[in-house]
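Support case: adenosine-5'-triphosphate complex. Customer-provided input:
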Amino acid sequence: MAFHGNPLYNTAMNQTPPSILTDLWEEACRSSSFPQGEEKALESLLFNTFSKIARENLPGIQKNFSCTELALILFPSGKEFRHGSEGIQIYRISRNTPSPEVEITTSKGPEALLIIEGAHLEGRIARTLSYLPGYPSWSQGILIPLTGSTGDTPEETLLGALLVIPAGTRETKTDTDTDTDHRKKLKSYIEATLAPPFAGLLENARIYRHAHRPPRIVTSHSKPRNPQEQNDQAETLVGTRGGLRNVLDRIESVVPSSLPVLLLGESGTGKEVIARRIHHLSPRHEKPFIRINCGAIAPELIDSELFGHERGAFTGAIKRKRGWFERAHGGTLLLDEVGDLPLPAQVRLLRVLQEGTFERVGGEEEISVDVRIIAATHRDLPGMIQQGAFREDLWYRLSGYPIVIPPLRERQQDIPALAHHFCQRSSRRFGIKTQSITEGDVDILRAYQWPGNIRELASVMDRAVLLSEGGSLDFHKALERIVPLGPEPSHNINPSSGGCHTEPLCFFTLDEAIEEHIRRALRRTSGKIEGPGGAARLLAVNPHTLRARMRRQGINWNEYRPGQTLPDRGGTPPPP
Ligand SMILES: Nc1ncnc2c1ncn2[C@@H]1O[C@H](COP(=O)(O)OP(=O)(O)OP(=O)(O)O)[C@@H](O)[C@H]1O
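Agent response - structure generated as follows:
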């Protein structure tokens, strides 16, 4: 068999490269092609991602492994599925075609009763396929069932199957033992790495189709409560006709259900705004929306904050306290910076997600809650999984419906609308009437990279409006304040190296550089963190995020308050 004896291939079998999952998820989330059906998503997933996977993780796959055909078999959902095989869709992808095209076959073929009861899933799929005309040799391929949950119930449903036909299968009448062994390894490799994301993709597609099934029923719940709220929503989420359109489509699809949602995006891209939007549009909108910044709670208090505690559970627990899960009952809980959750809390969270139950700290009573979880993070969770800092099972639970929010630099079409929005907001806030934004201004804003994303744009606009004193806006000036053109001599000189201009002698680690940058901001703001003139605005980050970061890096804001003794390091950067 083609992949026979390739040591690199065997190495790849033993690992689950997280980049594969990330690539697939990102591709699946970014793809706006679900409305047109899965074929487009498949095209990009299979031909871009699968070949990337092959290139990066299974060296030699093209020469040696070469699967001749890949097929995705989709089963009709729910009741329809139980009544027969009509409606099975088969997406055949042949790698031998010079310019690959996805061939779609919809089976109107013979009725074949297929009831999924968990056991012998694969045998049943294979049997059903054998009824379909034209694919006699498929039974020799590697069949991976793709299961997921398409509704609010945790029950697993068969969504489809992935069929990989290794080269030579058609010609080979009988497999040798070694071949079978390799096929088994290949199967478990695909199962571990590809099946979950593919199942997620299909689940997403189904939810999307379900939500867009004509005629659409709009319940009174899903309408905004009053015109004011409608205005608020329209005002807070800018970009819905531009770069956020795909995100909006995905939000619309998920709001009717209670599926957990995972918001992925850099800091300041609007994850919290989007989480609020999901809540407001959902049937839960009259119940609480609670946001918790997981990174801002001291690790020893996390359990008690999330799940509550009983009186006397620990020193200082003078009375029973309900945790955030209980308080959010019926509503939505945003777990912001979920990557900062310590591992023991991750275990408890997993249990709530799986069973909907937990106990208060120091308590025995089992409490059940009905809470929609939205998790958000700017961190690389798959990377953290590999380092053992984030549980893989929790990642799968949370990422049932991932939404990737693109950074501002990748959605420049939103810049004019956002700039106008924030210009009006800043003018109102400071009572300063400015001249309007010109095309030249927009060009300047477009040329900037926005590492702090929309939060940074908002604070640049605050600065531009303040500096304008009622005249024209000067974005060169407003941006200069954030990106100083030259180094600040007193802070950027490393005494041990004789200066920072000789790069290799004063190359700080990223953590050191971040720490020093935060300290500089605190020096400027005299220890003020939040609000106008605070370090969070200067750094264009959320104050909670900044506090969490400071705690992690052992920075005490108090040291920078007037009248306090300055820390030893003063203006000196950390040693290289
Ligand atoms: N699409 C948008 N339209 C209008 N304002 C937005 C939009 N996205 C973000 N903002 C504004 O940008 C700021 C940052 O947004 P938000 O706090 O939601 O970002 P985040 O991704 O959750 O950041 P972090 O990861 O640092 O917590 C907020 O003031 C928010 O109102």
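The radius of gyration is 27 Å.

Case will auto-close in a few days if no follow-up is received.
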